[in-house]
Design goal:
The protein has 194 residues and is mainly alpha-helical. It has a two-stranded antiparallel sheet.
Length: 194
């Protein structure tokens, strides 16, 4: 009897953990709450704006990389783990670079610095990981060439998900424009990883 009670208690505690735990629950897409980042984000926001970033650029950097707004992610980025399979590296045109995680396919087609390079030269995009000014210029060239809607669709890389990406960027941008362009507050918009 005692072992059955212990088993029941363990089962119920695990069930409660599974229901209440944010680690196990699927994160829902949509707006997040304002968040106070490390005070260093103030200098990061100011620096990026001083070298040409606008509120939309900051919003994309926050959507892609959170408070860091940098390229501190695995080289080329990774596809999310799926169906019990581990995450795998992105390569070729799918590889992402810079603080905006622009994909190589867009970079090599629309950024003057990389125009005409092949898919096989994708590692050259790493330059954007350490050169924010070039990353900002490159993103502006992509948006100018494609228009915002097509840019967002290509940035997301999954058919039909451009409007959700645009919603997320607009949500964060609107928050930033309400007096948060130079403070250590950001807000998030959850999108599932692709």
């Amino acid at each position: 009897m005692f072992s059955k009670l212990v088993s029941l208690a363990v089962f119920l505690s695990l069930a409660l953990f599974a229901v209440a735990s944010p680690i196990i629950q699927e994160r829902q897409d949509g707006p997040g709450d304002p968040y106070r980042c490390n005070p260093s984000v103030v200098n990061r926001k100011k620096f990026l704006q001083s070298v040409g970033a606008n509120a939309r650029d900051l919003a994309i950097a926050i959507l892609e990389n959170g408070c860091k707004m940098n390229s501190d992610y695995p080289f080329g980025d990774v596809y999310p783990a799926k169906d019990g399979k581990p995450a795998k590296p992105k390569t070729g045109d799918a590889a992402n670079f810079g603080l905006f995680k622009n994909n190589w396919g867009q970079i090599r087609r629309h950024c003057s610095q990389f125009k005409g390079q092949s898919q096989a030269q994708w590692r050259n995009g790493a330059f954007l990981n350490t050169h924010d000014v070039s990353a900002i210029r490159c993103q502006h060239e992509q948006i100018k060439a494609l228009g915002v809607d097509t840019f967002f669709q290509n940035q997301r890389g999954v058919p039909g998900e451009g409007p959700d990406y645009a919603k997320g960027v607009d949500y964060i941008k609107n928050y930033l424009n309400q007096g948060h362009l130079t403070d250590n507050f950001v807000t998030f918009y959850n999108l599932h990883a692709v």
